[in-house]
Amino acid sequence: MRLAVDRIKCDGHGQCAELLPELIRLDDWGYPIVASGEVPNHLVPLAQRAVNGCPVLALALRRVETQRRATG
Amino acid sequence: MDRNTQDRVRAREAALRLLNRLTTGVGVGALAGVGVLGAVSAYTIPGAATSSQTASTATSSSASSTSSTSGLGSSSTPINSSSSGSGVVVSGGT
Amino acid sequence: MTRLLAGRDLALGAEGLAEHLQRLGPLPAAGPSLTEALVRSGLAGSGGAAYPTGLKWRSVAAESNGTAVVIVNGAEGEPRSLKDRLLMTTRPHLILDGAFLAAKAVRAKQVVLYIGEEHRASQDSMARALAERTGEERRLVRTVSAPARYVAGASSAAVHLVDEGIATPTTAPPSAHERGVAGAPTLVQNVETLAQVALVARNGSPTGTLLVTVAGGVFRPGVLEIQAQTTVAEAVELAGGASEPPHGVLLGGYFGTWVKAANAWELPLDHDALRARGLTLGCGVIGVLPGSRCVVCEVAGIMRYLASESSAQCGPCFFGLRALADACTRIAERGTDPADLQRLQRWSAEVSGRGACHHPDGAVMFLQSALATFPDDFAGHRPHLRRAA
Amino acid sequence: MNDTLLWYTTRGAGAVSLVLLTAVVVLGILSALRVKGAGWPRFLTTGLHRNLALMTLVFLGLHIVTAVVDPFTHLGWLTAVVPFSSYYRTFWLGLGTISFELLLAIVMTSLARGFIGHAAWRMVHWLTYASWPVAVIHGIGTGTDTLSAWLLVLTVACVAAVVAAIGFRVTAGSRDPLEEPRTTFQAAVQRREPR
Q1: In B, which residues are within 8 Å of C319 by CB distance?
Q2: Which value does ipTM take for this structure?
Q3: B79 found inside a domain
Q4: CB contacts, 8 Å: C173 with chain A
Q5: Is B41 left (phi over 0), alpha (psi -120 to 50) or beta?
């Protein structure tokens, strides 16, 4: 499972970084920098919570590597 | 995991606990509220001579949380934009 | 070996259909065989990404069941590139041949001419050429003006404009060839690529030449058709030679890469050869920076432009490019502060790859290449007290 | 006394539902304002907003059930489903039904947000600004002993809280830092082309 951000929908709420600091931090302008690669199993529930909690549904948890490149 | 991330993980865990405590607290308060307000309205049946001033607004903790709208607007400081449109491009005698 | 610009003298304007057919013969049949021929020929796109044309056609054809759309991309939003305009105003029928061949090969039901709204001559030339084509061909075609903004030429922006009238890039996946105009698989192809296709269909192989625009400190800047592997020095010579000893060369326009002048001359102008050296040819702009110009100030100016061209849909791009441009401007106007150099590195790493389109990636590649190629200029830059404009 | 127990429970649950719904509305507005403090991350506001929204439904359910089964008023289930179908205080009770059904739509679309997408969810969520005021008026109009001070004070407090929150929201303007530059750029590249 990988985290992917829809950069156009994302408007810098920052809740995903609050919920999942292990994998997401915010840049200087409040937008998420998502660690690339597979989400460790023990963090999948939290990642799912961050996905459901995103106020604009910009975060997704995808099974296969479908985004163009691992967004850093 | 660096210290900063550890701090943020601890903050998350604390906030999740707080969320659960607040939710259960409000739930219990609400249940109590049904009882209290039910009883209060029993004493203030119309026709009962005394319209006893038993107004109590502190029915449940949630009521108090609603009025504490602390003005903590997140400060998105405006970036001083110096973007002056098309810049000098690879110049030369065109 | 024929050339794209073979035929009548370019100064005489557009070649009409009769002359075009008399010179090159009728439009050959098209179908899967042409797609395979393109794959075998290794023809790469000339829009800037240099994606193999045959593979692109295959993926659109695979998804299309007679509903696909072909977008002929003549937006040419790269400020210093002139090649697409030259091609549209002198050899429009080569482009239309390529477009109709593509439409047949991917079973498209519509062809959209997407031409920069400020390229008036190109719009007129393509309209006149279209008028000469058959009724069946004309019915396929619709002309749409591309706003004169840098991102308007991106394939997802072209699709978005044709669909909803707004030329802003959209999030991929899905990309255009999967789900483009009205949800149909869409082939977005640069005009030069389609001109090459028209010749591959007739000769079995591309011309082996490419159009480049030599700009900046040369005596005769403009578009040249050169053999692949021609060196930068030869191209600059063909453009009248450098007007003064150059400081460096920018290959590929604003999403391009810098090379110190000394190292540039022997470089072969070929996508694969340059990519192997960590460089890019992009849309074929060869920008010669005269020695009297300060590279830091040039880079700062271009970064300000690229920042202002962000479509402000993605935070990292909009804020990131402005922060990078502001830092470059501080270095240019006040002299180098090491903290700014560190910020340029940190922000570059944070911005690249975090946009819905490639605008931030191209801008960061451009900046990083300048920082790597001219470290001393950036490290020790002093504000210019008085310098020639 | 026990047959009036239901009636008192209805009133108690109604009042509590009003307070809870008010809290949910205020928390929703605070979420949009993206408020954040030490020890209070933004997901806490939205998390509480969601939890209390579901809790509101529970107490609203209690309020409706106790009202409907109350032999004293024998309203019948139809009252809770079809607005203005009760014989008793038809108008005021009808408002309650409307407010309840709006709230159901809001909560259902929130639970299905992943399927219907953000835009559709957001449109339905605007119904909150109908559901809550209608609930307040229902509370005032139906309360048989409306003059009882405690309900009036409670209502005023709830209205004050929401008005204050709306005040903050309106004055704060859009919290999306790209709202203005994005709109400006789109206007620049907008070309109304016929499809």
Answers
A1: 79
A2: 0.86
A3: no
A4: 66-68
A5: alpha
Q: How confident is the model at residue C356 (pLDDT cuts 50, 70, 90)?
A: very high
Q: Which residues of chain A have a CB within 8 Å of the CB of D36?
A: 14
Distance, CA of B79 to CA of D41 (rounded, Å):
24
When the candidates are 3.40.50.11540, 3.40.50.12780, 3.40.630.10, 3.40.50.1820, the CATH number that belongs to C10-203 is: 3.40.50.11540
pLDDT of residue B79: 32
Burial B42-66 (b: 16+ CB within 10 A, else e): bebeeeeeeeeeeeeeebbbbbebb
Q: A63 to chain B nearest CA, in Å?
A: 25
Which residue matches tokens 């997704």? A60
**pLDDT, position D144:** 59
Annotated domain spans of chain C: 10-203, 209-290, 295-379
Q: pLDDT at residue B83 above 70?
A: no
Give the right CATH number for C295-379 from 3.10.290.10, 1.20.1440.230, 3.40.50.10490, 3.40.50.2300: 1.20.1440.230
Q: What phi and psi values does residue C324 have, to the nearest 5 degrees?
A: -65, -45
Q: Across chain A, what does the average pLDDT equal?
A: 90
Q: Is C142 helix (H, G, I), strand (E, B) or coil?
A: strand
What tens digit of pLDDT does each residue of B13-71 get? 999 999 999 999 999 999 999 999 988 887 776 543 333 333 333 333 333 333 333 22
Q: Do domains C209-290 and C295-379 have the same CATH topology?
A: no
**pLDDT at site B82:** 35
CATH architecture entry for C209-290: Roll (3.10)
| Mean pLDDT of all residues belonging to chain D | 91
Secondary structure class of C109 (helix, strand, coil): strand
Range of the domain at B16: 1-44
If residue C285 lies in a helix (H) or strand (E), which one and from where to where? strand C285-290
On the 0-12 / 13-18 / 19+ scale of CB atoms within 10 A, C36 is: middle
Which pair of structure tokens corresponds to residue B80?
Answer: 């001083």
Q: Which residues pair with residue C226 across a beta bridge?
A: C210
Q: What is the pLDDT of residues C319-343, one digit of tens each?
A: 999 999 999 999 999 999 999 999 9
The shortest CB-CB distance from C304 to any of B80, B87, B93 is to: B87
Architecture of domain D2-188: Up-down Bundle (1.20)
Q: Where are the alpha helices (DSSP H) in chain D?
A: 2-32, 42-69, 78-81, 90-111, 113-125, 128-142, 149-172, 179-188
Q: pLDDT grade, residue C253 (50/70/90)?
A: very high
| Nearest CA-CA distance, residue C355 and chain D, Å | 14
Over residues A55-69, the pLDDT tens digits come to 999 999 998 754 444
Give residue B42's identity as a one-letter amino acid code. Answer: A
Residues 176-195, chain D: which have Cβ within 8 Å of B?
177
- The number of folded domains in chain B is 1
B78 touches chain C (CB under 8 A): no
CATH 2.60.40.3950 applies to domain A2-62:
no
Q: How far is B13 from chain C (nearest CA, A)?
A: 27
